[in-house]
Amino acid sequence: MRQVQPHVLIVEDEPSQRAVLSYNLESEGFRISEAEDGDAALLMVSEEVPDLIVLDWMLPGVTGIEICRRIKSRPETRDVPIIMLSARSEEVDRVRGLETGADDYVVKPYSVTELMARVKGQLRRSRPAGVGETLSYEDITLDAETHRVHRDGHLLKLGPTEFRLLATFMEKPGRVWSREQLLDRVWGRDVYVDTRTVDVHIGRLRKVLCAHGGDDPLRTVRGAGYALG
Ligand code: CA
């Protein structure tokens, strides 16, 4: 089954810009990978095809346009929507003229709200079923679009990390996830987080899930990890 959280790759060399993008996309419930240059971006795309790429035009080394062209020329990545960021509107005109295959263009400085709307618009086109998907397991329901989780009619207040953990579990009930796999899926492979952090967040998730009663649906599998049910 496809992941509930769309995976967005951000390719931007400026750390502050990357952080802003990351923060905002994560708050919208996306899973994020970050690359600071074209080579890193191409490598990441070859390892795991994202659902969408936000691609800066001006990058050290391989330019955004070249990356766009390469991604759009490969059958396995051709359909991944690319939103290009550029510093000036003349560049946008050039991108259009070059027919790189980018799906959308945003001029810097952009409004975060506008960019988020463009991202969602592209994802709605490319994976219509992924947006607004609702998962349920026994008396728990999770709405991927509104980020609302209910258990037995009660609205649960989950932090973003607990939400992502639960979404991961609910995609495949019964599957045992190791701490490393959860780190990859929920925190991202580039982030260094101690595996004990997983236990802390699982603890929080359990607390919220059982806040209004009901059995603990999460199972600790000794020596292996965690599972839902
Ligand atoms: Ca740049």
Automatic annotation (TrEMBL):
Which residues are in the OmpR/PhoB-type domain?
132-229
Q: Give the main location.
A: cytoplasm
Q: Where is it localised? A: Cytoplasm
Q: Which SUPFAM superfamilies match?
A: C-terminal effector domain of the bipartite response regulators, CheY-like
Keywords of this entry: Activator, Cytoplasm, DNA-binding, Phosphate transport, Phosphoprotein, Transcription, Transcription regulation, Transport, Two-component regulatory system
Which InterPro entries does the UniProt entry name for this protein? CheY-like_superfamily, OmpR/PhoB-type_DNA-bd, Sig_transdc_resp-reg_C-effctor, Sig_transdc_resp-reg_PhoB, Sig_transdc_resp-reg_receiver, WalR-like, WH-like_DNA-bd_sf
Q: Name one GO cellular component term.
A: protein-DNA complex
Lineage: superkingdom: Bacteria
Q: Supply the SMART domains for this chain.
A: REC, Trans_reg_C
Every copy of the Response regulatory domain together lies at 7-123
One biological process term from GO is: phosphate ion transport
Q: Name one GO molecular function term.
A: phosphorelay response regulator activity
Q: Which residues bind DNA?
A: 132-229
Role summary: This protein is a positive regulator for the phosphate regulon. Transcription of this operon is positively regulated by PhoB and PhoR when phosphate is limited.
- Protein's name according to its UniProt entry: Phosphate regulon transcriptional regulatory protein PhoB
Which organism was this protein described from? Limimaricola soesokkakensis
